[in-house]
Amino acid sequence: MTNETTRRPRPAVAGCAAVTALAAALILIAIGLIVAIAVPSFFESPEPSSEGRFGKQSGLTVYRLRQAAEDGRLTDAEIAHAAGAKWIAKRAPDATRIVVRYELGPACYQFDVSLPPGSQASVKRDRLKHCPAFGRQNNTA
User: Strand order in 86-91's β-sheet?
Assistant: First the structure.
């Protein structure tokens, strides 16, 4: 027998360390591939349809008109803020009819705001088949 004083690593311990390192590397590669595939496809979602965009934009206009009518008045500035696009309005004693032309389509929506303004005010919207003629500026008819 030999009297060796140096310790040599056992082959089983070195093999376990190599297998563990290899498994960790494979897991990191798999995570990297999943992220590389998932992230770009998340940002490449399909564009919403024009109907969806107009529906959202006109819904926002309804919400803003309803808020503006709650204070008892519906001013041109409030209509302009609510519309966010070209608009014309026709005022009557019992209602205000507003037509808004959204540029993306172009598409026109008609909003009927019941009067008197206040907490009971209601706003109805309808999409128009044809847009009326708009002047250079927003105006009240």
Answer: 123-128, 107-114, 95-102, 86-91, 139-140
Q: From CA 10, how far away is CA 71, in angstroms rounded?
A: 84
Mark whether 66 and 118 lie in a shared domain.
yes
54 plus 81 within the same structural domain: yes
Distances (CA, A) of 62 to 10, 69, 89, 125: 77, 11, 14, 7
Please give the model's pTM, rounded to 2 decimal places: 0.60
Residue 73, token pair as written in the block: 């008045």
Q: How far is CA 8 from CA 4, 12, 15, 60, 126, in A?
A: 10, 12, 14, 75, 85
| Residues 60, 125 within the same domain | yes
136 SS3 class:
coil
Nearest 10 degrees: Cα torsion 75, 110, 63, 60: -110
23 and 57, same domain (yes or no) = no
- 53-68 pLDDT tens trace: 778 888 999 999 988 8
